Structure formats: structure tokens, C-alpha cells
Amino acid sequence: MEKVLARIFARLIRRGDLVVTFASGRTARFGDGSGRRVAIRLTDRAAQWGLALAPDLKLGELYMDGRLLMEQGDIAEFLDLALGQTPSAPDPWPIRALEWFRLRWRRVAQANGLVRSRRNVAHHYDLDARLYSLFLDPDRQYSCAYYDSPDAPLDDAQLAKRRHIAAKLAIRPGDRVLDIGCGWGGLGLYLAGVAGAGNTLGITLSTEQLAIARRRAAESGLQNQVDFQLKDYRKLDGAFDRIVSVGMFEHVGIGNYRTFFETCRDRLTEDGVMLLHTIGLSDGPHSTNPFIDKYIFPGGALPSLSELLPIIEKTGLVLTDVEVLRLHYAFTLRDWRASFMARRDEAVALYDERFCRMWEYYLAACEAAFRYRGVVVFQLQLARRQDAVPLTRDYIHEAEAALKRAEQAMTAPAALAAE
Question: Judging by beta carbons within 10 Å of its beta carbon (0-12, 13-18, 19+), is residue 374 exposed, middle or buried?
Fold first, then answer.
């Protein structure tokens, strides 16, 4: 198996400098020797079999279990080296055959009914809230930030994301807003407290997120204006002038796409506007990475526009704007990973070493995917009428400027009080 695995590495790594120590103790070097050296060690023969036969699952598992050791560099550098290579040829037929099967199995694997959806959310979002405090910004934005420049501070980029979304929603004073998948409540509180929305309802399936969102609403004095509920989007009633969903659609499952958009259409007023912010695939449908599905986001799926648009068209919703955020999530994950690694000892105290290696691999692998694979973020603006938003996109920039002034006006008294 060492010879087979060596051929795989030779085929994959053509640039850079990778040193692999196999279970037998034999060492091999791959790449052209350029750049910083990365060295790994495989501790046993079974690890080599697993890595050769199912690399997209076993690489993460072996790192978690301490059977793939980093001897030079870290796991992020190894993934950057491996995924940053330019493909020289199509994948071999066994890999293509496996992907064909996985694509057709998606509807079964992502059959996210009411009970399963709640269980999937609990798997990730009901983890100890202190874990997320280790690496998220103070507003607990657990989705792609919006960077004016690659080196912008994470806090500024997350505020810019909320501002950008609010501007696209074109909120009018008193608009009733629905936030599907509200997380820890930051966006809903921003829409009500800064953007001037009226009654705002945020829904989540996470009990941990719900408790924190409600506490934040009370602390901000917005508890009579912003309501957070534990509710599935399929159980909603009422009408809303604006609907927003950020980082939730990835959990819907391919078999529920039409239900999701039909539900949004039915809940949206005749002149309403919706903004969907979701991770997606720019190069067509793919199956979910098996490591991410098993350990991080069970039941999750990343949509392509070729899958979404035919369904949206059939629901009667009008696509009024599309924006593709490229690399923004790579920068976000970079900053999350740096913060997590700086406080890694605290994460070990909360969970254990294996969990922390899993989390480190998750953040690093996703960052590499956003840098080098066809993984992006889509922002789709939808409406029921063609004239629901202005004719040109100038209103977005004008609204962002107005929101920035409102933010500064709100922070100025606090700054003066601190002085």
C-alpha cells in the first residue's frame, strides 16, 4: 500500500515541498521543492489504507485520532498545499463513480424532516456556548463576513456583512421582518435596533442559541420589538414584509428546497423582499464532503445555482439580484482559526484533545475549500413583484452609508461615557 499511496501523492503534489514518513519508517518527498516544507507521518498501515481508499473522510479522521501526525507545518498548511494544486487530469474512474453514487444518494441522506432537522441542528449548534466565544466576534456572527480588504478586522467585516444585508433588504420603518435561522440573534437585533425594522421574529432550532438570543434582546431593551422562537420554518404562519435567512439554507436538504421557497413565498407580503445568504457551489452540484457530513454538519448540503434557480422559478418568486462573495469566507475562516488556535487550551478544557483536532481540521479544510475549490457564498434577493426594489443597485450603497451613520450615532454616546 505504501507504493500505491506514494503514487497518489506523486500525482497530486507537483508544486511545493511535502515529506511523508510511512508506517514502515520509509520517507518520500513530493513536489518541486518550492515554498515552505510540510512533513507528515502515518503511524500505521491501516491509516495508509484508509487514506488511499477514502481520503475525503479518512484524512480528517486520521488527524483527529493522532494517526496522521504533523512533523513540520500544521494541518492548515498541509491542506493548503494539497488543495492548492492545479488539477492536471480528471479524477480517476473509481472517484468519479463514487461521486456519481453520492449525488444520487443525497435525497436519502438529506431527508431532513422535522425531527431529523432538530437533531442535526443540536449536533452542532447546541455545543457549549463557551466554545463559540473562543473564536467568533463579539456579536457571535457564525457566517461569512464581508471584507472591504483581505486584512480587515473580523469585527469590522462582520458588521459590514450585517450592514450589507440590511441595505439589500431595503427596510422601511415599521416593516415586519422574519429571520429564518437567527443564530444568536445578532442580525435580528441589528435590523430592529439600527435599520429601523418594526416587529422582528427570529426562529432557530437550537435551544442554546435561543436562550442567548433572548437574553441579548432583553439586555438591549428590544425584547418588545424582537422575538426569538424555537420553531421550524415549515411551521410558520403570518405575513412578513421582509424575510432574511443567513447560513441556514445549507441545512435544508435538497429534497426540501421547493418547500423552503414556497414557504417563503407564502409568508412574504405582496410587495415584500427576501434575502437568502447561503454557501453554494460555483461549478455545479457536488455531494457533501463525508467528513463534514459525519462530524460537523450532518444532513447538510451546498446548493449550486443550477439547482436553485429552476425551483425558484416554479414558486413564482422573482429573482431581483444575485451577488457572489468570493474568498470572503476563506478570510472569515482564517480569522476564526487564528482565534481558535490562540485559545486552544480553553477548548481542550471544555472538550478534549480529539475534539479540538476535529475542530481545527474543520476550520482549516473549509478555508482551503473556499480558497481553491468552487465553494462561494450566494446572496439571492427575491421578491413577489418586479417593482419591489428600486431599478438600480444605487440604493444598496446609499443605504449602507445611512446605516453606517446610524451605527456611529449609536456608538458615539457610549464612547463619550467611557471617556
Answer: middle
- Determine phi and psi for 99, rounding to 5 degrees: -65, -40
Tell me the C-alpha to C-alpha distance, in Å, between residue 26 and each of 44, 128, 394: 12, 42, 62
Nearest CA to 382 among 274, 220, 267, 252?
Answer: 274
CB atoms near residue 239 (< 10 Å): 12
Q: Where are the alpha helices (DSSP H) in 239-343?
A: 257-267, 290-291, 305-315, 328-342
pLDDT at 417: 43
Dihedrals phi, psi of 417, to nearest 5 degrees: -65, -35
Higher-pLDDT residue of 110 and 398 is: 398
Q: For residue 39, give the 3-state DSSP assignment.
A: strand
Task: List C-alpha distances in Å: 290 to 82, 109, 127, 148, 362.
Answer: 18, 11, 21, 33, 12
Average pLDDT over residues 135-140: 96
- Which residue ranges make up each domain of the chain? 2-83, 114-418
Q: Where are the beta strands (DSSP E) in 159-215?
A: 177-180, 200-204
User: Does residue 264 carry a catalytic annotation?
Assistant: no
Q: Which CATH architecture has domain 114-418?
A: 3-Layer(aba) Sandwich (3.40)
What would the pLDDT profile of 233-247 be if each residue is shown by its tens digit? 999 999 999 999 999
More confident residue, 11 or 412: 11
Pairing, β 177-180 against β 240-246? parallel
Distance CA 419, CA 410 (A): 16
From the candidates 144, 264, 356, 366, give the one annotated as an active-site residue.
366
pTM for this predicted structure? 0.92
